[in-house]
Amino acid sequence: MIKKGFLRLGILFLYLTSLLPFWFLYLISDVLFLIIYYVAHYRRDVVQENLANAFPEKTAGERHNIERKYYRYLADLMVETIKMITVSEKQIKKRVVATNAELVHEYFAKGKSIIAVAGHYCNWEMAALNFNFVTDKRFMIVYKPLSNHTFDEFFVKIRSRFGGQPVAMKQTLRKMVEYRKELTVSVLVGDQTPVMHEVTYFTNFLNQPTAVFLGIEKISKTIDAAVVFYDMKRVKRGYYTYTLVPLTENPKQTAEHELTDMHVHYLEGMIRKEPQYWLWSHRRWKFKPEDIHK
């Protein structure tokens, strides 16, 4: 009970903080960057190892520059995530813009549901909130539940503020089959790390063999949904655009693993252009192919 009480106090603090205007939150971000980078050294060893493995062709100085830019952006991402608790519809529409929302309606006119693949790149959560205003059809956001039930419930409420329907990852296929007679949009993050015992496929991603989920490929073929990729760009501090890039309209016609490689390699191209906006502090490469076959 005491632990739960402290968690609820923490949530109240986050809620009150989210009421602050963006300009003030970015002042907090400037200080937060100094703390997480210079004082706490938050996962700097993980970031440095990931960057060294992903970009062996770059100099140490170039990788250090990416590292510092990443932590500056990470601090911004933290305060923007807090702001999502109370951000208004007007602010979301102003700060996140879909460049080709008409593509959604074109697929619907053809009777196609849509699977939108995102990466942990730029503010993918704010983009998902904005997508609620692109369509009036059922909009599902697939997420990985947090181990802490109180915080998990809290983030589910944030993701569903504008009508989105959060769906736990393990329930994804069941939910999509349940709504297969409707036209729907489902957002899935394509660069999650699978649990070791569930790994069946590795692909090359950022210069390393990388375990990937095959769920996007399997689900899209099961419900015959068009698959697009969120190409996100940061315009300036607190402002983003995203373009829906078609990967396939007919997933059943793709070869095994072809669609998986398509969305993984598209994300890699985005990262190589502006690497500071990907989540480098995530322990993405927890195991290698030889670990699976031991």
From TrEMBL:
Organism name? Mucilaginibacter pineti
Spans through the membrane: 12-40
Q: Where is the signal peptide?
A: none
This protein's major location comes to: membrane
Q: What GO terms fall under cellular component here?
A: plasma membrane
Query: What CDD domains does its record include?
Result: LPLAT_LABLAT-like
Q: Which InterPro entries match?
A: LipA_acyltrans
Q: Where in the cell is it found?
A: Cell inner membrane
Any GO molecular function: acyltransferase activity
Q: Which UniProt keywords apply?
A: Acyltransferase, Cell inner membrane, Cell membrane, Membrane, Transferase, Transmembrane, Transmembrane helix
Q: Which GO terms describe its biological process?
A: glycolipid biosynthetic process
Q: Is the keyword Transferase in the record?
A: yes
This one is known as: KDO2-lipid IV(A) lauroyltransferase
